[in-house]
Amino acid sequence: MAAADDLAFDPWDPAFVSDPYPAYAELRDRGRVTYYEPTDQWLVPRHADVSALLRDRRLGRTYQHRFTHEDFGRTAPPPEHEPFHTLNDHGMLDLEPPDHTRIRRLVSKAFTPRTVEQLRPYVSQLAGELVDALVAKGGGDLLTDVAEPLPVAVIAEMLGIPESDRAPLRPWSADICGMYELSPSEDTAAKAVRASNEFSSYLRELIAARRKNPGDDLISGMIAAHDEDDDRLTEQELISTAVLLLNAGHEATVNSTVNGWWALFRNPDQLATLRADHSLIPSAVEELMRYDTPLQLFERWVLDEIEIDGATIPRGAEIAMLFGAANHDPAVFTDPERLDLTRADNPHISFSAGIHYCIGAPLARIELAASMGALLEKAPTLRLAAEPERKPNFVIRGLEGLSVEVG
């Protein structure tokens, strides 16, 4: 185990947030695990360890299925944060078996590969329309003009949220996801609580309407889903699942799109290769997600004492698996700091692994490929108009905007 007294790793430093990859290399060189006192976490930067720990049942996204806060040596969240935690803690991402197993099984009955595949024509059409509008005005902000509206519309369409109700979805999502950063402020928490209350109230009304008049949408499908024991999702589980699908769909795809195009603009040889051969789109999507992943860190609680590289990590500790560092591990990826859209062997972990592997990964891939294909086809001269600014967030990595020109 390495000490962290002089680490370049500093999630609150704008310079680090702008480019964390040199610090990740330092962490990997130091060892397999490093204790980081500012966040009371054990940082794990290597691909083999992150991949294994994502599947290790001695770790959990929650501990409350086995321990009270007191038994686990942790302090319960403040009561005023309760609406956020009620919403968050009933979603698949923050549950462990048996609850996780039951909810994922029921959701999977509605969120099938066939259901996702049926969305492909809608996704392609919408991506084309958004890019057409961007081209018609000679450019704009790729974030707000293409990257955001596409996944928001797709997952809202899938869930059955009427178009007239969609405007608050992205702001709600952004406010809730603020709580996933390290040591969020009270202002961030207040915004997340307000968004949790408003989002939950909206979905409660929508679910009630779908119970009376089911439609051909995911919410109706999740209401109807049951197993051989006639087990069904509770209303809170329905609400939390819908919010999780919306939030994950928004944040991952939006940030993957702008991070990816910013990487392409910084690597003009790769962009030229892609423009010359659109058949590279599938491998380009995977490589861009590896190269600058939208989720840099994923946390797990230590439910039973483990040992990593001679360091004993006790029950009650928190492990921070650094996806961005793992995706640049030279032990797995040849020349990892180089963007290579033809990279064939690409076992990135941007969609996680194990029981919490992203259920929306197939849909995200369809969306990313559709927007990339539409931009390559309809905006072949797309170019950067201004240097973008990074969002100050570390865990969820994205840009404030991406100004582009066409023509």
Overview of this structure, please?
The protein is built from 17 helices and ten strands. The chain is of the alpha+beta class. The strands form three sheets. It has a five-stranded mixed beta sheet with strand order 1-2-8-5-3, with helices on both faces. Helix 4 crosses helix 13 and helix 7 (120-136) runs parallel beside helix 17 (361-378). It has a single domain (14-405), classed as Cytochrome P450 (Cytochrome p450).
Element layout with pairings:
Blueprint: H1 14-18, H2 21-30, E1 34-36, E2 41-44, H3 47-53, E3 59-60, H4 82-89, H5 99-110, H6 113-118, H7 120-136, E4 139-141, H8 142-147, H9 149-159, H10 169-177, H11 186-212, H12 218-224, H13 235-266, H14 268-276, H15 281-291, E5 297-302, E6 306-308, E7 311-313, E8 318-322, H16 323-326, H17 361-378, E9 383-384, E10 403-405
Parallel strand pairs: 2-8
Antiparallel strand pairs: 1-2, 3-5, 4-10, 5-8, 6-7, 9-10
